[in-house]
């Protein structure tokens, strides 16, 4: 029995134990009290994709069953989420001049929508740019809005726009999404074009250097393993994986293997555990299924804008495809398996939560942000103490924000804020 | 007695008559009722320069005496202003790469502040982009926020950004401010560098062509007379002077001469009368005064951002300089003299109001927007009827918005809004 086989066997035993436990998981007062004392952040909130939908309001209570949404103010209150990184996400489109221009305009618009949401709800939300903001904003009874970018495609036409994003609050940046672009190679399979850079391109390297200079956290999620290695080598500040899982739990290219998890931790970084079902378990999807799914996703349009109606229709189409191919649905236990494994390998000081809410995240038993207290309970049950759980809930993210900003070039920061 | 001398004499007589009248001007119920029926727009509101000031709120009532400000929601209600064009103004700075980048970031930030002001006050303000919006928004009991840009300096680094500004609501664009830039020559004297283009540069011509394609109104104010001639020749849509005066009333390069006023009208354009004292009358300023004033303005910083404290201090410094040089203060009568002359020369269908509130406008007796009804009364007293006055108050501007958009390239508009 080699190491890998042993580990798989152990994981199976752990999985069974966790499954049996989580089915009857009841959130204790202890867990709720701990959460109330902690700062609870999720580092990948895709909810801004909903901000442009006519009639959709973050102050209304929605339900996952009715419209597939997972985050709004009432549910954040119920789930005890104090805020997080709200994402300027841009689906990868053509890398020609027109595609880059459209992505630029799209990114600026989405950035504006995030800021306008905060402006419209000053009693409930506040922009956050430094680590200390989160505690202050929580004490004021409001929710933190840190801003991040997923896929640097909006910077492709003109990377110098990063200075404006920084000025407008951007503090985290990923380079690539589901397919390769001119900054970096993607971990994507179905959607991937031919690998172009063997990791980072020169343009991608320059963007990381500039992010370092400004104190913007570099985010690896969605990039290839080679990009991870090169980011670690290049970035003078620790990096984040804002929403990723464990490759050694489920060998999906979106996940990070144990060896790299240890490198990440040694470099001071943090991995925020993702809850997107396809990356958590082998759902039984065949190559045919993945091809059909990829085609379906592409049919939804390149830049992530959907009306409520289109969204509902898209969910139904995916559901129909899943039924046709008898796709297994991931559960809360599957999510916990990744979380507990990563905690074990990377250490509690290097793990957090990035469930990809409103971006594909959420599994059976963990459908929206109201279920967050279950994670706290599960961590207590797994034997983690308050200090450790507080770190996972947000403390590690705040430490990273602080570290990355401390390593920035003060002259560059001053010039960008002028 | 040649024509010019005759005209000067006539103007003097008119001035005395107007002066005698306006001193005792009382706003009638008729004027107020007319204003309530009309749509009252000002095409150059520099108030966004205040949006970034900590603690300044457009919903609070301020006073010109206390802080020099001239527009806020309570005073708009009192003065009967239904909205207008809110300006992304950028003071001209260096034309090197860094200056252009800083201007780009500054413009995007100011644009964001305008949109965030609207987002923060959805019961009082609404974004407006087409002519029909103004009546609807007034009927809803709100104020219209059309967006314009004064000085295309923020587009200097990358003119293709115009597509994003358009998407974000920009519907009017001037090329240049107090000194020449890479788009066009300025009418500025004290601040001017050497004339560079003899009017428009090729880059300026391309920007006008693109504005035409998108249905963005081209604004001549602050540009040189040669730029006016070239704009008229080039622009396939009528143009605006968003805040200018009559050169034949006071020969200041910021004003437009009668010959050009007639060309403007024949081309279908509109001139919105400015109330900035230095452009209305000979204030007795010597070259020494102007040199000192220019130096003072430059000391306020290049990009128009001032704190309340700095603003107050700046006003006091200007006031001290004016006292030192015994500068004559322009009055409401001086303003009316320009307005009535321009009405006479261009015709009532080609005149409107652009008082440069919060951007240097306002004279003795016309200090802030609460005085707007005095203009209505003065026009009634001068014999203009309701149709004509309604056109001046906003109808002509709305017609221009509609005309310019009707002449746009539908494919370009569709692509920009995608």
TrEMBL record, chains A, B:
<keyword id="KW-0732">Signal</keyword>
<dbReference type="GO" id="GO:0006508">
    <property type="term" value="P:proteolysis"/>
</dbReference>
<feature type="signal peptide">
    <location>
        <begin position="1"/>
        <end position="22"/>
    </location>
</feature>
<dbReference type="InterPro" id="IPR008257">
    <property type="entry name" value="Pept_M19"/>
</dbReference>
<dbReference type="InterPro" id="IPR032466">
    <property type="entry name" value="Metal_Hydrolase"/>
</dbReference>
<dbReference type="GO" id="GO:0070573">
    <property type="term" value="F:metallodipeptidase activity"/>
</dbReference>
<dbReference type="Pfam" id="PF01244">
    <property type="entry name" value="Peptidase_M19"/>
</dbReference>
<protein>
    <submittedName>
        <fullName>Membrane dipeptidase</fullName>
    </submittedName>
</protein>
């Amino acid at each position: 029995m080699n190491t890998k086989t042993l580990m798989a066997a152990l994981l199976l035993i752990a999985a069974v134990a966790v499954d049996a436990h989580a089915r009857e998981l009841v959130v204790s007062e202890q867990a709720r009290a701990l959460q109330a004392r902690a700062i609870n952040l999720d580092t990948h909130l895709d909810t801004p994709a909903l901000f442009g939908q006519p009639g959709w309001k973050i102050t209304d209570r929605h339900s996952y069953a009715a419209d597939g949404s997972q985050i709004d103010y009432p549910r954040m209150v119920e789930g005890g989420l104090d805020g997080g990184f709200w994402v300027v996400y841009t689906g990868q489109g053509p890398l020609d001049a027109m595609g880059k221009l459209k992505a630029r305009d799209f990114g600026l618009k989405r950035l504006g929508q995030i800021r306008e949401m905060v402006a419209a709800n000053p009693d409930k939300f506040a922009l956050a740019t430094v680590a200390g903001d989160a505690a202050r904003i929580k004490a004021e009874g409001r929710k933190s809005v840190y801003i991040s970018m997923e896929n640097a495609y909006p910077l492709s036409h003109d990377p110098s726009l990063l200075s404006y994003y920084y000025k407008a609050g951007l503090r985290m940046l990923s380079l690539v999404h589901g397919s390769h672009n001119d900054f970096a190679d993607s971990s994507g399979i179905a959607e991937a074009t031919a690998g172009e850079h063997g990791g980072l391109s020169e343009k991608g390297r320059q963007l990381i250097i500039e992010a370092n200079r400004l104190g913007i956290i570099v985010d690896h999620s969605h990039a290839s393993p080679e990009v991870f290695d090169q980011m670690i080598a290049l970035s003078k500040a620790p990096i984040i994986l804002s929403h990723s899982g464990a490759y050694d739990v489920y060998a999906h290219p979106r996940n990070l293997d144990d060896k790299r998890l240890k490198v990440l931790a040694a470099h001071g970084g943090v991995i925020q555990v993702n809850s997107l079902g396809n990356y958590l378990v082998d759902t039984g999807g065949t190559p045919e299924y993945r091809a059909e799914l990829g085609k379906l996703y592409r049919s939804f349009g390149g830049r992530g804008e959907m009306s409520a109606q289109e969204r509902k229709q898209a969910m139904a189409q995916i559901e129909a495809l899943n039924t046709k191919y008898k796709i297994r649905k991931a559960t809360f236990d599957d999510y916990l398996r990744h979380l507990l494994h990563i905690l074990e390998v990377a250490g509690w000081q290097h793990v957090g939560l990035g469930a990809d809410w409103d971006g594909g995240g959420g599994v059976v038993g963990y459908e929206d942000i109201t279920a967050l207290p279950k994670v706290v309970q599960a961590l207590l049950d797994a034997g983690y103490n308050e200090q450790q759980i507080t770190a996972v809930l947000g403390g590690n993210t705040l430490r990273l924000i602080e570290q990355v900003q401390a390593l920035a070039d003060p002259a560059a920061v001053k010039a960008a804020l002028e």
